[in-house]
Amino acid sequence: MSQSRSVAFHTLGCKLNFSETSTLSRQLEQEGFEKKAFTDIADIYVINTCSVTENADKECRQLVRRIQRLAPESFVVITGCYAQLKPTEIATIPGVDLVLGAAEKFNLVHHLDSLTKGDPTKICSCDIETVTGFNASFSVNDRTRTFLKVQDGCDYSCSFCTIPMARGKSRSDRIENVVLQAQALAKNGVKEVVLTGINLGDFGKGEDGGKKNQENFFDLVKALDQQTDIPRYRISSIEPNLLTNEIIEWVANSNKFMPHFHIPLQSGSDAVLKLMQRRYTSELYQDRVNLIKKIMPHACIGVDVIVGSPGETETYFNESINFIHALDIAYLHVFTYSERAATKALDIKPVVPMSVRQDRNKIARNLSYQKLQYFTEQHVGSTRKVLFESVKHTKDEIGAGMLEGFTDNYIKVITPFKPDYSNQIIDWTLA
Hints:
It is a single chain. The protein has helices spanning 15-30, 54-70, 81-85, 87-91, 108-112, 163-167, 175-187, 217-227, 245-252, 270-276, 282-295, 314-326, 354-378, and strands at residues 6-11, 34-36, 44-49, 75-80, 98-100, 122-124, 137-138, 145-149, 151-152, 171-172, 192-196, 232-235, 260-266, 300-307, 331-336, 383-388, 402-407, 412-416, 425-429. By secondary structure, it is α/β, with parallel strands linked by helices. It contains 13 helices and 19 strands. The chain has three domains: 6-126, Methylthiotransferase, N-terminal domain (Rossmann fold), CATH 3.40.50.12160; 137-377, tm_1862 like domain (pyruvate-formate lyase- activating enzyme); 383-429.
């Protein structure tokens, strides 16, 4: 194994996974490994998996088959949520050499030293209840904005979700450590930090499941705003019941925290929310949106929605769509419900046929398109600050010699490449 010195990574799933993959990549580069593109031939391929939906599982299998065709003698390592939930199942995939669960993900370098091609698949998993440590991670050099992981795990018990089984109990970093990391990123030229976590608003819980020095997410927001030189922060996603008035009001008066919130809803029907075991009602959600738009009319609000979950009758679905239609939000992330093993949702009836789920997905996505068009049109002619990416895109992406950037309130801007714009914040009149 000592002669295998190149590694390629692929990430499935959430922003948290991207931050962790980036950290793993830096660890291996520090040990002398050469980082390669996933489409290149490498000695080792690492796939950091998600298991929120069935498609993520399927994509993992497809990636392994692709590696087998490209580089059959290379080592394949699977880690992440899918690896924690179904290690034995993954081990049966031809070509997989190592499966690392939640407790062993950041010990990747150590495990690579013991691999021999042709040996039976090695599984290093654990009881998720024993996972209590927090591993700080962040993405850097991958894009202009950096994903900074400040929290991990979840103590909620939503009926459709496997995340607590894959990630363990809620736990987080210390504020002083996060501030130091943010300052280090600022010195490296990072202009925007996206705070990430599994249940970000639950920040403050420590390795023992208890509170550390009574720190909370609002304390973190204030500290980053007041003690760091990062010009832009975004809150990746926060539960409506944990998005307090004081957080919203602080963001409204901050020059660093962007007027952009992503607030999971999942359903606009209270009956479905109860079946999902969510910790809020549609009324509370409406109150959160109303307060944001009252004090920040320009704010962008994104919403997670699950369609076709067990018990979602046509009446409940229509109730949800009508509720979302009335919300002053900018876009939806729409997920089609898929059955996940060992979740309470499997016992909920009636089960929505897959064809109906797909139809509902189309309806919700169409609504999202309409919402985004309306939100964007509202800002035509206004001048907002845009942070342009540092990467020049090709015609296969967004256009030959083009730059992409986002306003403070998350409206995408694309313009012909200019070197002076790269990784810079520019006043921009929206057309």
